[in-house]
Specification:
Elements lengths: L2 H25 L2 H7 L3 H9 L2 H23 L2 H4 L5 H13 L6 H20 L1
Helix pairs in contact: 1-4, 1-6, 2-3, 6-7
C-alpha cells in the first residue's frame, strides 16, 4: 500500500467519523430531539432542515467518494479493516467534544480493533 493510498484511507475513515459527530450533534438539538419523539414526518422534516444533518451528509458523501477511489487501488480485504480506525477517532471525538464517558472496557476493546487494523495494514 502506497503512502498516498494509506493517507487517503485514513482520511476517509476520519471523515466518516466526522460525519457521525455531525449526525450526533444534529439529533441532539432540542428541535430534532422532540421531532424524533413525534411522527416520522416531523422527524424527516426536522432532519431535512438541520444544518448538522446536512453537514454530516456532505462529509459522509465526500468520504464515500474517496473510499471508492481507495477500493480501486487496494483489495477490499486490505482496505476494509481500516474502517475499524474510525472507532478510535469516534471514541476520541465522543470524549473530547461530546464529553461522553470512556470506560476501561470500551477503551481496551477499541484499542484491540486498532491493533487488528495495524496488523492487516502491515500484511499489504
Amino acid at each position: 500500500m502506497t503512502y498516498l493510498v494509506l493517507s487517503l484511507t485514513l482520511l476517509t475513515v476520519t471523515l466518516s467519523a466526522c460525519a457521525q459527530l455531525a449526525f450526533k450533534l444534529g439529533v441532539t438539538k432540542p428541535s430534532m430531539a422532540s421531532a424524533l419523539q413525534s411522527s416520522i414526518t416531523e422527524s424527516l422534516v426536522a432532519a431535512a432542515i438541520s444544518p448538522f444533518i446536512w453537514i454530516g451528509l456532505i462529509i459522509y458523501g465526500l468520504s464515500v467518494a474517496m473510499w471508492l477511489w481507495v477500493l480501486s487501488k487496494v483489495e477490499l480485504s486490505v482496505a476494509y479493516p481500516f474502517v475499524g480506525i474510525s472507532f478510535l477517532v469516534t471514541m476520541a471525538f465522543s470524549a473530547l467534544l461530546l464529553n461522553e464517558t470512556l470506560t476501561p472496557a470500551r477503551v481496551f476493546g477499541t484499542l484491540l480493533i486498532a491493533c487488528g487494523c495495524v496488523l492487516v495494514g502491515k500484511s499489504a
